[in-house]
Amino acid sequence: MLLSPKDEEAWLREAPAAGTAIPRGATRPGRGTRTISKKLRFQVLRRDSFRCTYCGRGAPEVVLHVDHVVARSLGGETAIGNLWTACADCNLGKGVRRV
């Protein structure tokens, strides 16, 4: 079945169904990859002195994540200017809210 251009665009923007795996490195139009490369992740961690930018705790005291300042779901890019270090507690408690 062929989709109209409008239907195709809507299909591309839809979130995957619950439980559907997204392949590593998969892309969506205009959004880039869904993963942060190891090199970029290390650059962000090093820039932030391996400390959470919210609470200041660092490794090995806590598990550190590299987080998007503007969430990908809100149009944020996976670029060093939109990434910062957050501990697991701060990152998971924040969700997609911008702090």
Which short descriptors sum up this protein?
single chain, alpha+beta, DNA Binding (I), subunit A, two-stranded antiparallel sheet, elongated
Structure, explained:
It is a single chain. It is built from three helices and four strands. With 99 residues, the chain is an alpha+beta fold. It has a domain at 36-99: Orthogonal Bundle (DNA Binding (I), subunit A). The strands form two sheets. It has a two-stranded antiparallel ribbon with strand order 1-2. Strands 3-4 form a two-stranded antiparallel sheet. It starts with a helix and ends in a 5-residue tail after the last helix. The mean pLDDT is 78.
In the CATH hierarchy, the third-tier topology of the domain at 36-99 is known as DNA Binding (I), subunit A
What is the H/E order?
HEEHEEH
**Helical content (DSSP H or I, runs of 4+):** 25-40%
Say how many strands there are.
Answer: 4
Mean residue pLDDT: 78
The whole-angstrom Rg is 16 Å
Per CATH, which architecture of the domain at 36-99?
Orthogonal Bundle
How many helical elements? 3
**Order of strands side by side in the largest beta sheet?**
1-2
The unreliable regions are: none
Estimate the global geometry from the Cα principal axes: elongated
Tell me the distance between the termini. 44 Å
CATH C-level name of the domain at 36-99: Mainly Alpha
